[in-house]
Specification:
One of its GO terms (molecular function) is oxidoreductase activity. Belongs to the nitroreductase family. Keywords: Oxidoreductase. InterPro entries: Nitroreductase, Nitroreductase-like. The protein is an alpha+beta fold and 197 residues long. The protein has one domain: NADH Oxidase (3-Layer(aba) Sandwich), CATH 3.40.109.10. It has eight helices and six strands, in the order ααβααβββαβαβαα. The strands form two sheets. The protein has a four-stranded antiparallel sheet, with helices on both faces. Strands 3-4 form a two-stranded antiparallel ribbon. A hairpin with a 2-residue loop joins strand 3 and strand 4. Helix 2 packs across helix 5. The longest helix is centred in the middle third of the chain and has 21 residues.
Length: 197
Amino acid sequence: MTIPNKPADTSAQLADLIRNRWSPRIFDPTHLLSAEQIQSLGEAARWAPSSSNQQPWHVVFLTQGSKLFQEISEKGLTGFNQAWAPSCSLYAVMLARQTEKGKARDQAGTYFDLGLASMQMVMQAEAMGLKSHFMGGIVPLEIEKTLNVKDHWVVCVIAIGKQASLEAASEDLIARETAERTRLPSESVYSVDKPLS
């Protein structure tokens, strides 16, 4: 049984939780999460930092086997995501609130706050021995309709579950799972004590 483990090849020492986090697409479809595990993921998002502590997000968790999980799998995902994502244990549909006390929210700032909540939840999943995969390949209008979403932007869906072995996967999926992890060079991503060139 081959389950890929792909720690990041970093240029500085990082916490193992960060080095070992990556986004597989092969999950165990028989692995179900307990109510307590889902609550832990929700609490991780709830305690994320946000501007003025406004917490402008809502997470809709959809569990493997539920009617809504099936509907999002069929209508709410695009292209290749439809082929692999339904094997995960849980979808976390990430929503960003459009208004605050009757006034329109700044979309960039709201998305930033949601990103913090999303990443905090993903790191909690990693600490629980689970894996996750952010999906931007979604159909927001279908998700809005299915989940009765109002006054929120549908930003992404995160697949969460137990990573599974490569044996039963397609050649295309195996190629993606075993591909080398790459990043832009350090100087393209951060700098110290100098302006941008």
